């Protein structure tokens, strides 16, 4: 009907003779998406409490009786290599996944959308976002996050005031043998102290700190936008396909021999069977857009309130100390974190995108 390699849309013979249960593919696919979302949300919720640590500990105890010790040690070494040493595993995985998604988009969706006379500007938007995303991805990977050394230690000590709570004065890093500026932290993965430490990101194989947080935010924004744009293009393509083919006007014989008008569930199942890779791609980018969008909103909230992920996490742990279900020793007095660094929305954002120390050092050079 559409020429080229376009699969033909359903004929009445297919609709009348089909004997596949209506919900098989759709239910499995929806269960797959629901399982992923529930798992991610559960981990996010439990990570703020001690539930996750308790579950991991009990799970490790159970598996210790099942898995041989030699295999257990090999798994621990592999996990230590993945998450506690600097390596390019997740960087390569990131590029492979991105390449697979864009290959599928180019191989099937782009050509089919051209046959349906989609605007080229609309179709090329994901490629433009990909180029911008790769630029900020490289900057996030390679930019110095704000490593503290003997040479710049005194300079960093003057940037933020100490709150005498989360960041007390006259603290030294036992590993680097440096005085710890306020809002800094020693990264055990990179083995360095980082100014305004946010977190260590395995996907860029680098710490996120004062000097590269702006690149990381743009990287996250463009990655979210590219996934969302691809989801929109794929959805519009499938909807347009159904409209052009008049599939919604067809009828079919159900499992009980009754004549039924094609409904939304049947249309989704048909598209799933006819275009499985496109529908799986759509499901993947929809879930990815949701997860990345949620994380982007969280990062923008932290930027707007002048907090780091490290400070938010430590504050969450202090908040958990008030939980009546958790037993704490008398010496472990809960400390209330006060954000003394927030200076209003625009000042906070200016601090992210124009870090003072980086600007000072560029002028000095």
TrEMBL record:
Its EC number is 2.3.1.225. It is found in: Cell membrane; Endoplasmic reticulum membrane; Golgi apparatus membrane. Signal peptide: none annotated. GO terms for biological process: protein targeting to membrane. Residues 172-314 form the Palmitoyltransferase DHHC domain. It comes from the Eukaryota. It catalyses: L-cysteinyl-[protein] + hexadecanoyl-CoA = S-hexadecanoyl-L-cysteinyl-[protein] + CoA. Keywords: Acyltransferase, Cell membrane, Endoplasmic reticulum, Golgi apparatus, Lipoprotein, Membrane, Palmitate, Transferase, Transmembrane, Transmembrane helix. It is an enzyme of class 2 (transferase). The chain crosses the membrane at residues 25-47, 81-102, 122-141, 216-243, 278-304. PROSITE patterns: DHHC. One of its GO terms (cellular component) is Golgi membrane. GO terms for molecular function: protein-cysteine S-palmitoyltransferase activity. Its main location: membrane. It is a multi-pass membrane protein. PANTHER family: PALMITOYLTRANSFERASE ZDHHC4, ZINC FINGER DHHC DOMAIN CONTAINING PROTEIN. Belongs to the DHHC palmitoyltransferase family. The DHHC domain is required for palmitoyltransferase activity. This is Palmitoyltransferase. It comes from Balaenoptera musculus.
């Amino acid at each position: 009907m559409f020429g080229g390699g376009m699969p033909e849309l359903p004929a009445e013979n297919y609709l009348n003779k089909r004997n596949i249960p209506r919900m098989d593919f759709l239910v499995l696919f929806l269960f797959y998406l629901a399982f992923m979302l529930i798992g991610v949300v559960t981990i996010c919720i439990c990570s703020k409490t001690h539930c996750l640590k308790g579950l991991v500990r009990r799970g490790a105890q159970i598996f210790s009786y099942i898995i041989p010790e030699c295999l257990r040690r090999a798994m621990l070494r592999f996990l230590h290599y993945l998450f506690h040493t600097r390596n390019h595993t997740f960087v390569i995985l990131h590029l492979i996944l991105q390449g697979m998604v864009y290959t599928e988009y180019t191989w099937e969706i782009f050509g089919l959308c051209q046959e349906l006379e989609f605007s080229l500007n609309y179709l090329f938007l994901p490629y433009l976002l990909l180029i911008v995303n790769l630029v900020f991805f490289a900057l996030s990977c390679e930019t110095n996050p704000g490593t503290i050394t003997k040479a710049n230690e005194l300079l960093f000590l003057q940037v933020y005031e100490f709150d005498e709570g989360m960041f007390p004065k006259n603290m030294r890093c036992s590993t680097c043998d440096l005085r710890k500026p306020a809002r800094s932290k020693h990264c055990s993965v990179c083995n360095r102290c980082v100014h305004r430490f946010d977190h260590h990101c395995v996907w860029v194989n680098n710490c996120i700190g004062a000097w590269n947080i702006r690149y990381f935010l743009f990287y996250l924004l463009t990655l979210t936008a590219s996934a969302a744009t691809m989801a929109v293009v794929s959805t519009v393509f499938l909807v347009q396909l159904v409209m052009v083919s008049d599939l919604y006007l067809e009828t079919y014989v159900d499992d009980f021999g009754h004549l039924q008008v094609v409904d939304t569930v049947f249309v989704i199942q048909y598209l799933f069977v006819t275009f499985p890779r496109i529908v799986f791609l759509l499901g993947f980018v929809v879930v990815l857009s949701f997860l990345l969008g949620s994380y982007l909103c969280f990062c923008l909230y932290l930027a707007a309130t002048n907090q780091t992920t490290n400070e938010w996490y430590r504050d969450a742990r202090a908040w958990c100390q008030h939980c009546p279900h958790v037993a704490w020793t008398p010496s472990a007095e809960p400390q209330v974190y006060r954000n003394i660094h927030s200076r209003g929305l625009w000042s906070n954002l200016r601090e992210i995108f124009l870090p003072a120390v980086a600007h000072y050092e560029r002028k000095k050079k």
